[in-house]
Amino acid sequence: TTTQNLTAALSTMDKRILQIGCDPKADSTRMLVGGKRQPTVLDTLREVGTENVTLEEVVHTGFGGIKCVEAGGPEPGVGCAGRGVITAISLLEELGAYTDDLDFVFYDVLGDV
């Protein structure tokens, strides 16, 4: 909640923000996108494959124009959350999500990742 509140406040000051939720629960950006669960990067990769995924499928615009991403996590019992975060960040780099016009990029991570 702290990250959501901080990014929401900064967006009211006309700051351009990318917030990446790095929790397998995928709830970091939920309140910024109207309380809905958005598809995670890993869910999208499982559905459409690495070659077919687009930036628009994994980055959703939320409150105040905040670009919202949820990394997601591996299937239960198949790896750690950190691996999902690495996969998501690599894909976002590859798809050009980190643009020069961003003022802030927030990674909302668990303490154990």
What would you say this structure looks like, in words?
- This protein is α/β, with parallel strands linked by helices and 113 residues long.
- It has four helices and four strands.
- The protein has helices spanning 2-11, 41-48, 55-58, 81-95; strands at residues 17-21, 60-61, 67-70, 104-108.
- The chain has a four-stranded mixed beta sheet with strand order 2-3-1-4.
- The two termini are 18 Å apart.
For this entry, give a set of tags:
alpha/beta; Rossmann fold
CATH topology: Rossmann fold
Q: Looking at the chains present, what oligomeric state does this protein adopt?
A: single chain
Low-confidence stretches: none
Overall pLDDT metric: 91
The CATH architecture can be given as 3-Layer(aba) Sandwich
What is the topological layout?
Layout lengths: L1 H10 L5 E5 L19 H8 L6 H4 L1 E2 L5 E4 L10 H15 L8 E5 L5
Parallel strand pairs: 1-3, 1-4
Antiparallel strand pairs: 2-3
Short structural description:
Helices cover 33% and strands 14% of the residues. It is α/β, with parallel strands linked by helices and 113 residues long.
